[in-house]
Structures are given as structure tokens and as C-alpha cells.
Amino acid sequence: MSTLQSRQIRVFLSSTFRDMNAERDYLVNFVFPRIDDYCRQRYLEFTPIDLRWGIPEEDSRNGLVLRACLEEVDNSRPFFVGILGERYGWTPGEAELDALGASLQREQDWLLEKVVEGASITEMEIDYGVLRDMNIPHACFFLRAPGVEVPDDFKEPTGSVNEKRLMALKDKIRRQKKYGCYEYSTPKELGDRLYTELMAMIDSEYPPTNYDCDDALTVPHEMSLERRARTLCDITHYRGDFDKWIESLKKVFMVRSRAGGGSSTVLAYCVKDLRSYYSDNKIIYFDFESLPSVASPVDEFLKFMALERHRLPDDKWSMVAIDNASMLDTDDIERLIEWIDNQCNNVHVAFSVTIGSNAADMIGFRYSCPTSTLSIYDTEQRGEVIDNYTRQYGKRLTPAQKERIIKCNHTDDPTTMNILLESIVAHGRLETLDGYIDKLLKSTGVNDIFYAILSEGDKAFHSIGLGKEYAAATTAISLVPTGIPEKDMYESLNIPQTAWLTIRPFVMRFCKGNDNSIALTKSNWCRDVKMFWSTPYRAAAGKSIIDWYLADPERYARGARIAAAIYEDIWHLPIGTDTSDEAAMTDLSRKMLSIALSPDLTKSIPTGALGLIFSLTMRDGIAKAGDVAIYGRKPDLLSPEEQHAYYSRLARVFTSFNRNADAAWCYERLYEQRIKSGDVSAPIYKARALLLVGKATEAIDMLKSSGLAGFKGLTGLFRKKADTGADLRNKINALAVMVRAYGALGQWDKMQNTDIDIEKAMDAIDENSLDIETVDNSITAITEITLMLSMYGTAKACQQASKISHKMADALKTMGLGHPAVYNDLLGCGIRELRRGEYKNAERWLREAINSAVMAFGSSYNNVLTTHKRSYQYNRAANLYGVVYYRLTGKYYDWDGVGYTTNVYKPLDSDRRLEGIDPATVDKGVKQTILLERDFYKNVIRTIQPPFKQQEMDAEPDELRKSLGL
Fold it and tell me: Which residues of the chain have pLDDT under 50?
């Protein structure tokens, strides 16, 4: 295992202060960040030392200024930059020599000579760092051109001793030939030249390395480990959680925190320490954020683990630490889980994840693994972080300044504290530092430190003519919370690459990700960006990005997910006020429907986004959307397998968002396809279509007449040799539809009897090698039964449901949190606990049911206009969670995201509806079951409402009953 130490580059900036504020500000804001960005990509650490402030007043009084400056010159070797204008600078007295540290005592005689001469501290820095012995490898000097106009305060008096000494110092610099000496007229001219010089110095000191194939895969992760493992406060107590996990022999462990809350730092720190402690065991670190632009991050992980150096022993404990798994989508997480399941018992895996992410929920559900949850910074830790961070730059804040930061509500997490301190360190003027700190810490309403820093960036980039580009870049990133490739972002908005390279370091301070995708570190920062820029501007920027992706087949293949995310954000926003802008949004809606119906693109769009697009753009149903121009291949050009996947996915989306007529249309297409090919499974798809439009009795009759379910039970089903393979698969799938049909009719006894038959059928799965879909359908049908028993059954029926659920627990875990069967099971568990009054247990099950609904059926937490984004299944689990939350806290949960109300509970719409379906064609039993389900949720919610609201609920017209024709 290669252990690569990070490489430090410190550059001391020597000049006078007040007359060089403009130059230093430009370097600190626009040049040094670009160099730092370059160094990070090469796993170097770049730290510019700008001492305009940072030496406390007490140290100045005690004569510590000279010592602090010369020690920083030493700490920055072998790099030095000198800049001179028309000021000679402050001249220290002999008292300064009394405070020299041990490392400078050897220079006592030389420094005394300089003090007696009346040399300024700037001249001492230049002589001490470079000119006295000329042995430093990397230095350069810049002299402000004589013709540049500067205020008289920034010039030495004509004929004065200081003017003569300044001229002599400049002549001395010009005469030496070892180091570059350049004149400049503007801060930008200085910055451009210094950028070139420093980049050459860095590449000379640390030449770019061409790693071999194996190292090329490994080095980025090891460098990331080194960078992340350094901490700014004591976190050793988290190390004990790893020891407990190792002793438990559990396969998986998670370090969890809020977004930007430090889980990566804890994982890296503990990996480093574990490698030292378990030196004979293999401990591997992999960081998904350190990947280059790759088609599949999990493919890259598998390639990484296939290296000979990463071969994991079967007979010895080993560990794989996986950082930033929260960046992965659900499909990638499922592949990662599959890889873990295939490892031997001696292989253990530790993750860093964000609380509430798909990775945290899916891994936690699959393995029920131990976790270490990071708490917020306490006041002592905040003080440590402030001291350690500023010390890197040779600076210190005063006790009063530190106290203001420590007491701020928003400095309790690492990311916010880091960007705050980075901004403070970059501020150049001592006289305005207090006011600047107060400005950053001031919080109004929902705005926080990030909002203030966003504003600072706007001001800074406007000053150099890049305000428009800065606005476009930050807006684009905020429109895609899941991330957008940076090259796509700046090209789609016509931001010149040179402009983006200047903006990028500032923007990346509050972003995460890699070449594949960059996103804001905290999702709530998207809200702050939205509040900062006007809504018409955001809408126009979003439409520009979508249009750019859709203009080229190579682009729209990768841009479908991003286009859907942007459309979720801007569909209700005005681009402007005239009719042409309204037409532009109409055109955009048409394009989004074309994406959503494209077989080649729809599979990459999350279910919730698809539901929103269909809700907004396809008001007359899919049957009347046939004239929409589809990107890529048309459905009739797909293979039978591809058609099955396409129409099945659309059907699930439509069902989740109460569009059963559209879902039925999809199954009708599959039925027609099966009929043409002579496939005996055709009636199953027809039955699904009938069931979706409320014709459950007809669906049952069709399946019975087809012969697929035309038998009394399954007593002798497996005795027939013909009932293997496809025959068995079709009969089980037919029974799964029968279960749903009996449930839709409220015929619980028949539903349970069918369940027994399905369980018998499942006993033969191993022997008959049934496909995954058949197994999924069977288990989903069983969980629908347990859900119905949990909702409507007696106490005895609930016990039966609980036993069945327990029996299926292992199978459900392998299916994953995002499977419909898992959602049914979790909701059923939550309902049973709620009925028993075990509210704490119910809260846990229902919280997982909500997470499952998000993944299985599509929903979103973070959108004010959530009506179009929440699935029917999500709303059911959420409403019950709100009831349990009230029982536990006495507070009403507000699902519209405006906090907690105290007087009434506002449930989400969880009624099943028959949109686009003639109620007269729907079985009466189906209608009654829909009403029964509505009444169940309504009655549970009613129990926590205040009396006045209960009376209102009782007096409300029964619109659902009316719409059903009952």
C-alpha cells in the first residue's frame, strides 16, 4: 500500500501594507485561489502568508512583530515573493530584538546591525529571506512602475532618508540576476505575472509525475486520505467506535453526519490510525469524490479493488473504507451492496455517509449496522478550530473576535466554519476586520453565513467584470442539487473557460464532487442561491442549460437527469413578462415530455421527477400524447425485453401518482406485444390493466379462464413436471395479480388463501430457478396482504401479519429499501405499532417507510411546491408519521416545509383517486375498498386533531364518495 505524504507549499508575501492593499486584495481573491485549485488537483497544499493582520495588539506592544515576520519567512522556505511601491515601511527598534525566538538567536548580531542602520521590516524580510546569501531556490520581485499614480500618503517624502533607502533597496533587487524582477502598473498585471512565476516554481519544486497504471488508480485516494485525515480539533473519541465495531465482527459500519458535518474527516482520521495499530492487516481507502470523469463510479471502484495490491485475504481480518458514498445514485448503491454481500466474512466495510442520504438509508436497512453519528462542534472545539485554522496562515484572532464566532448559531458544523474562516483569513484590512466578521455572522430569517459569503463573491467578481459569469455559475449549480458536470455547466451558459477558472476556486469552497458532477455541499444552500438571484434570471438560466443538452444527441443522453432536476425547480417561474417568454416555457414543457417518454432517456430520470413532468405536461393522458416527438428510439423499435422494462417503469410512475388509466394503457401495450408473439403470459398483463382501472372482477375471471389461475389452490401444482420454468413463473405471476384483485375488492379471506398458495409456490423457487421479477411479484403480493391485515384486521390478524413479515425479513433486506414490497412491509410494521400505541417503534418504521417511498415511488422533501412531487405511497406513510410525531412530541408536523404548527395538523392528500376513469365501469367492491382505505387514514388523523378541526372534518362534504358515484 502506497502511503504518500501531502506536500506543503507556503509562500511569504513581503511588502508594505497600506499602500499595497489593492495588490494584496487582488492576489488573495483572484490569483492565490487559482493556484490553490491547481495544487489541490495535484495533491499539494498551497498556503499564502499575508500578514496584514493577525499579529495581536498585545504581541505588537511586546515587540513580537519582527519575530513573527521572520519566523514566517523561515516557515515559507523555499518560496518568497517581494513587492515594493513608494513606501519603505515601518522600522523596528532594538526592543524587538529582545523577543526573538530560539531559531532567530543566531541572527542577533546581523539584526542589530540592521536596526541600528534604520532598516525597515520589509527590507529585513527581503534581505533575510533572499538577498543576504541568495541560496533560496524560488523567489521573485515586483516593483510598481514609476508612472503609476498613488496618493501622497503612500509615498516617502522627496529627499527623505526613507526614500533614499527605498531606492537603494530597489537597485539592489534589480542588480541581482538570479531571481526575476518585474515592473507592473495594475494589480491585474501583477497578478498575471505572479501566477505564471508561482506555477513555474511549484512545478519545478514538485514536478508532475506520470504514475504507472496501478498507481494512477491508487494515488488520488491516498492523497485524499492524507488531506482529509488532518483535523483542526480533537476527534479521538470517535476512534473508539471503530474498536467496538471491530470487536463486534459486524460486516459493515457507518460514520454519519449532516451534509458537510465531518464524516469524511472522521473516517480518514480513523483509517490512518487503524493502519498504524493494525499494521499486519490490509486497510484500504477509496474516495468516490476523488474519481476523475468516469462513466460509472462503481465500475471504477471494482477496477480499484481488482488490483493485485488490493487483494483481500480470506483468512485474515481486512477493511475497506469507502468515503463519499452519498454521491452515488440508488442503482450504484445496490451494486455496491451486491459487492459487499459477495465478500467473505473476514472483509469488513466502513462508510462515511450523509444522514438522510440514499446511501445511509439503503446501507443501514440492508445491514442493520452499527453507526457513529457525529455531533455538532461544542464551544471548546470551535475555539480549537479557529486557532488551528488561522495559525496555518500565520494569523491569530483576538479573544473578542473568537468569542463572537464561537457564539454564532451557524458555526457548529465543519463546512460552515471552514468557509467562514477562509473568508476571514482572506480579508486584508485590519482596521475593517471587526466589521467584516460581524457582517458575515449576522443572520436574518433563513439566511446564514453562506448567504453573506455568496454576496461577498458577487461583489468581488463584479469588481473584475465577472459578476454575470459568477451569477450564472452559482445559479446553475443550485438548480441541480444532485450535481452537474462543471464543463457542461460553463459551456451551456457560454461562460468562457478562462472566466470559469477564475471563478471556480471561490465557488468550489462551498461545493463537493468531482469531474463527473459538482453540487453544493449543503442542499439548503440551494435555497439561499435561489433567494439571491431573481426568479426570471434563474428560469432563463435553467432553460438555457436544458436547451443546450437537448441540442445534441451526445449531450441529451447524459443530460436527461439534469434537465429533469432543473425543470422541477423552474416549471412555475416566469422567465419574463411578455408572451414570448410564456411561449418559451410552453416549448420547454413540450421538450420535457419528449424526454420523459423517450425509452433511451426516461430510465435515467428519477421517479419523482418523472411524476412531476407527467403531471405538468401530459394533462390528457398518455394515449393522446402519441404525436410527441421522442428523443432517440421510438418504443416500437425496442426489443421485447426493452419494451417490458420501459412500459413497466412508466406504469409504476403513473400508479404512484394516481394516474391509473395511464398505467393501464402501458400494460395494454405489453399485452398486445405478448399476443403478437404468442406468449401465454399475455393475460397477466391484460389483467393488470383491468385491475388498474377498477375492473378487478373481470381481471380475476380473465386469469381463471386463461388457465394460468384456473385451478383450486396449488396443492398439486408442483407434482406436474410441466409446471416448471415458464409455466411455474406465469402461474405465480398470475397469482400475484389475483392477490391484488381480491385485495382491491376487499375480499380478505380469498386474498389470504391465495397467499398460502403463493408461499407454497415460493418453496419451489430454488429448484425451478425462477427469475427475479417473479420472486419480486410474489413477495410484493404477500406484503400487500400483510399491509391489509395490519390496517383492517383484528389483533389476531395483525399477529399473523407480523409473523409473515418476520419470516420474510431476510428476503426483504436483499431486495433493498427502494423495493415496493419493502415499502409495504415497513408501512405495515408502522401501522401495527401505531395501533398498539407503541409510538416510538412506529416512528422508526414509518420514517423508513417514507425513505422507501422516496426511492420506490418517487418523492421529494425539498420543494415548496410539493403537491406535484409526492407520491400516493409517500403521503400515506407521511400522514401516519405526522400522527406518531404528535403522540411523541405534542407538536404538529407541517409537510409543506414551513416549520411546526401548534394548533392543527395539515395532512397530505393520501386518497386514491380514479382520474381519467369512468366510475360507472369500476367494480363496487373496488370503490368501497378505496373509501375504506380513506376512512382508515382519516380516522387515525382525526384522533390528534383539536375538537374544532374534528368537527370540520366530520362536516366536510364527502367529495371522494361523490367522485366514485357512491
Answer: 1-5, 61-62, 446, 711-722, 766-768, 860-868
CA angle at 604 for the pair 603 and 608, rounded to the nearest 5°: 85
Residues 246, 149, single domain; the answer is no
**Using one digit for the tens of pLDDT, what is the confidence trace for 211-261?**
666 777 888 898 889 888 888 888 999 999 999 999 998 999 999 999 888
* Angle 19-24-26 from CA coordinates, rounded to 5°: 120
Residue 158 CB coordination number (10 Å) = 6
pTM above 0.90, yes or no: no
pLDDT at 857: 84
What is the C-alpha to C-alpha distance for residues 240 and 242, in angstroms, rounded to an integer?
5
The pLDDT tens digits of the residues spanning 624-637 come to: 876 778 888 888 89
Question: Looking at the structure, do residues 478 and 522 belong to the same domain, yes or no?
Answer: yes
Give the cell for residue 564: 429533469
The answer to the question of residue 188 being in a domain is: yes
- What span, in angstroms and rounded, lies between the C-alpha atoms of 614 and 665? 14
Same domain assignment for residues 127 and 275: no
Same domain? 366 vs 485 = no
DSSP assigned state of 375: P
Check whether residue 353 and residue 414 sit in a common domain. no
Whether residue 426 lies inside any domain: the answer is: yes
In a domain, 47, yes or no: yes
For 18-161, strand residue ranges (E) read: 44-49, 79-84, 138-144
Is 716 a member of any domain?
no
Q: Mark whether 231 and 327 lie in a shared domain.
A: yes
Helices (H), ranges, 44-95: 57-61, 65-75
Asked if residue 692 lies in contact with residue 685, where contact means CB atoms within 8 angstroms, the answer is no
What are the cell numbers at 413? 458544523
Regarding whether 613 and 470 lie in a shared domain, the answer is yes
The CB density around residue 956, as the number of other CB atoms within 10 Å, is: 9
CA–CA distance, 547 with 77 (Å, rounded to integer): 51
Distance CA 705, CA 699 (A): 10
Number of domains the chain contains: 4
Place of cell 457507518: 254
Do the beta carbons of residue 341 and residue 367 sit within 8 Å? no
Q: Are residues 147 and 219 in the same domain?
A: no
Domain that holds residue 412: 379-442
Q: What is the CATH number of the domain that holds 70?
A: 3.40.50
Containing H/E element for 892?
strand 892-893
In terms of residues, how long is the chain? 966
